[in-house]
Amino acid sequence: MKPIETEVLVAGGGPCGLMLANELGRRGVRCLLVDPKPGTAFNPQANATQARTMEHFRRLGFASEIRALGLPPDHPTDIAYMTRFSGYELARIRLPTAAEAVRNVKSMGGSWSAAELPHRVSQKFVEQVLLRHARAWPASDIRHGWKLESFTASGDEVTAVVRPVDGDAVQVRTKYLVGADGARSLVRRALGIEWEGETGIARDFMGGRMFAAYLRAPAFFDVMKHPKAWMYVAVNASRRAFMASVDGVSEFAFHAALRPGEEADGWGDEEARRLFAEVVGAPVSAEVLSTGTWLAGHALVARSFGRGRVFIAGDAAHLFTPTGGLGYNTALEDAVNLAWKLAAVLRGQGGAGLLASYEAERKPLALRNTAYARRFADSVGLFQAKPELEEDSPRGEQERRLASEYLGAHARLEFNIPGVTFGGRYDASPVIVKDGSTPPPDQPNEYVPTASPGGRPPHAWLEDGRSLFDLFGPDWTLLAFGDGDAAPFESAAARCGLDLAVVRLHDEKLRALYEAPLVLIRPDQVVAWRGMSAQAASAVLHKVIGNS
Ligand SMILES: Cc1cc2nc3c(=O)[nH]c(=O)nc-3n(C[C@H](O)[C@H](O)[C@H](O)COP(=O)(O)OP(=O)(O)OC[C@H]3O[C@@H](n4cnc5c(N)ncnc54)[C@H](O)[C@@H]3O)c2cc1C
After folding, report:
1. pLDDT below 50 — which residues of the chain?
2. pTM of the complete model beyond 0.70
3. Side by side, which strands form the sheet with 476-481?
4. Least crowded by CB within 10 Å, which of 165, 262, 357, 385?
């Protein structure tokens, strides 16, 4: 068969690969995506889309579509800690419903000044939207039932072998290959890239083997007497577990910690029902949709994020313990970061340094985020649940008071994380022009908006009700406040072939928020430079596109 010619071959159609296909497709980059699965994920997988990821979905035009999925709009998105799901409630953090998130975001300030708030939705639904939009780009060729088998990279292209299920191998000639092929990444292994960090971290909960079951159990609400939540966490001495509501009606993603000596590899529906009833603390009928096991306790980051024309991204490049819900969100941000750089270099609008900046920017972020996830896992997983917690006695009451205090504080640490989601920065990046300012400290639960180059631009709602971010162009944006002279940037951008949108704003408050009359924003909505004058426009653009 004739070789397939493309510009970017993406191995893997999880959230990372599908986001790459969207970001490349909208820029007209030819992209072939292969994945051996018949379609998007069947299992719910990750359950939380962080606010920064929602802002990226908004930039791509489908945040509202995603927010309409998962739980009904008025379903609580609380996290509730209970001894067992039919037992005592110990602690609860209340979070806005999807409908409230849309209303509230317009009046929120400080740490939560944002275009979008988080959304509690299973990855399986997000993947369906990502796939539909990726397919709509004429430049994308998405093939389920196909897998990457091997590849060799030379100076100016990559030759790969892909194969359809039950079909003959086909050669692909591509300029770049991205391995978004998950934890067991063939691409990472073929490049000989090893993990660094820690794995096998042991804890009572979120450290060790977990048994997962995707359940349909509408009867759950007959035995769970507390208000509905999005995430139910069981805290007792015999079986720790968490369970996310998938549709708010009947479907649940149930994950139980296995006890030492329990061998669950051969477990199926019967064991799923047994563990579910044990954690609920009452018999409850359930249809088992799928089961599996997984290991909690990873904090692993690949030593490098690629070699030459081959890159790795998402779970192929980092493995998390799911506390904080950071694995899938970090995977999506890898795709956002890498895609515009690939497009720029393929179109001659980026220099040699631009692709190298992918690892320089994303590896420190992966180390930061895996460390946050680990800290959250220690906080909840090292809490020792005593048997007395479930006792109907004064001692039991006292234990529950102590647990309530501890878990309440833990919930605020893990689930109110504007600092984690908005505060990721690329301070050491070779394609950011630093201005000598010191960004605010990195902390999980607080985010101080700053336009110090290297981070997310501060967000604001405009007087006409629009989000400032909605004014940004599809690629580069220059914010020009008051009399800020944009002309030198416009001509320098034209010379480099960059698509630069100039946004002029006469708003003193915004000018004060950004602390400069001119601010250059990258295609991934990161501040690349800010300054008092445009005199050095040419030199700035050369640096931010990796030409110097
Ligand atoms: C049961 C479970 C529960 C989870 N819960 C959470 C959670 O609560 N919070 C959270 O943040 N994260 C969670 N995660 C992790 C989260 O799902 C991942 O971080 C996320 O899916 C990473 O996306 P990805 O696209 O990088 O990789 P994946 O989603 O793993 O996608 C990789 C894709 O590559 C494909 N592939 C593999 N080999 C090849 C090949 N040779 N050629 C082509 N394609 C290939 C696979 O079929 C797969 O579709 C969970 C994961 C699992 C399995």
Report:
1. none
2. yes
3. 500-505, 476-481, 518-521, 527-531
4. 165
